[in-house]
Amino acid sequence: MRLSLSAVGNYLKSWGFTAQRPIRRATERREAEVQRWVEYDYPVIAKRAKAEKAEIQWADETGLSNQANYGKSFAPKGRTPIIPRPAARFRSR
């Protein structure tokens, strides 16, 4: 079966799919520990920061990556696709 690009787009739209940029997720990620930190540890940190009139800043060690994340994918609206990949950015030879 051959479909035109617009026909495929119309089907995806009728099924509730939208074009979305996928998020990167480390394959080494321990989801249970992340969820626990978000639900229990972070609220304590945020409460303390508010009491001390401090601000929380988020930073990364570097903005460089050798793993490009170009393009878009399709997924149901509100459910961003996830690209699993290793957390290590550079491999030594």
Molecular structure report:
- The model has no long low-confidence stretch (mean pLDDT 81).
- The chain starts with a helix and ends in an 8-residue tail after the last strand.
- The protein has helices at 5-14, 31-51; strands at 17-20, 23-26, 73-76, 82-85.
- The relative contact order is 0.27.
- It is α+β, with helices and mostly antiparallel strands.
- The strands form two sheets. It has a two-stranded antiparallel ribbon with strand order 1-3.
Instruction: List segments where confidence is low: pLDDT < 50 over at least 5 consecutive residues.
Output: none
What would you report as the Rg, rounded to the nearest angstrom?
Answer: 19 Å
Summed over residues and divided by their number, the pLDDT gives a mean of 81
What spatial order of strands do you see in the largest sheet? 1-3
Helicity level? 25-40%
Q: DSSP strand (E) fraction? A: 15-25%
What is this structure's SSE topology?
Elements lengths: L4 H10 L2 E4 L2 E4 L4 H21 L21 E4 L5 E4 L8
Parallel strand pairs: 2-4
Antiparallel strand pairs: 1-3
List keywords for this structure.
93 residues, alpha+beta, two-stranded antiparallel ribbon, two-stranded parallel ribbon
Gist?
This protein is an alpha+beta fold and 93 residues long.
